[in-house]
Amino acid sequence: MRLKYAPLSIVRMLSLCSVAIIVANAPPALATEQLPDIPTWLTTHVGQADGQIARPVLQRARSLYMRKVSEGTVRNPCYFAMDATRPNDPADGGRFYIVCEATQTFRVVSSGHGSGRDLKGVADFGNGRMCAKNFGNAMDSNLTTGGSYLTEETKTTFKGYYRGSQTKDTAYLRTFLQFDGEGETANARQRAIGGHAAAKVAGVCMKKDPQSPYANREGYVPLGKLVEYAGGRSDGCTSWSASDANQIISMVKDNPTTLYIYPESKDISAVAKAAAAGRSPSQAGLYWNDTCMKQIRAPKFWSKETLEPVIVQYKKDHPAPPARPIPICE
């Protein structure tokens, strides 16, 4: 695969790689301490106000990016970060960050979080629309997992037709950007975790259209309403508005980069422990967004070892009903 990327100066790249080698070999507790100082232009974007990125999130995202650059895995001049402790409100400036240090550009956009699930009478690990309380890496949990990811291949699939301008039916093709992880995020591919536009075709009926390249054997195609849910939740994937998704995916097509999602399980456990002791995250020297902390009171991480057996048993005890046929359009 031929990689396309914007050139960096030789001096800058050597400096970046040499520091990244140090970081990659440093003990975890020292990794962020040995990073070079955040560039002056970027410090103006560091903080907890709307449109800013919290320092621990940026430090870890930079550390991951530099490590992957030093390994030769990444040559993209930009990297991504997400702060899943912030409110999911497109009006507050967003929580998904695009950082391009070579061109000194910083952008923040909205992004959804995993909805989780409520297994009635067994386990409730569901999340509200605004703030995420539950995180985890179990299969079929619909939960966000914090940690390190790499962007990988893309796949575009037909999701159905919707009524466009002048009542003309438009095919909706959605591109999915696969993520690969490491450590607790290592099962990202198995879980089909990635990024895509927060849009779907809902309220579907089947319309006769044998000339369509997407028609089934009987000559029918799905037709519904295009619904965008940029301010909503996902099945654990990272979802963006359609315009943001197009930009982000085009940036990494055939040119992978890193994505760091905060918080990891260690952060969740530390914040939960502090909350149990009656201390705020800041009082304990930790980070969590204040608005969401007040709403959720304490976060929880559900490991796959703990949760997957519960989900498997629940499926056995509550088999899905037979699929209903999709109605024919009137």
UniProtKB/TrEMBL annotation:
The residues the entry assigns to the signal sequence are: 1-31
Protein's recorded name: L,D-transpeptidase catalytic domain
Upper taxonomic lineage? Bacteria, Pseudomonadati, Pseudomonadota, Alphaproteobacteria, Hyphomicrobiales
Keywords for the protein's UniProt record, in alphabetical order = Signal
Record organism: Rhizobium lusitanum
The lineage's top-level taxon is Bacteria
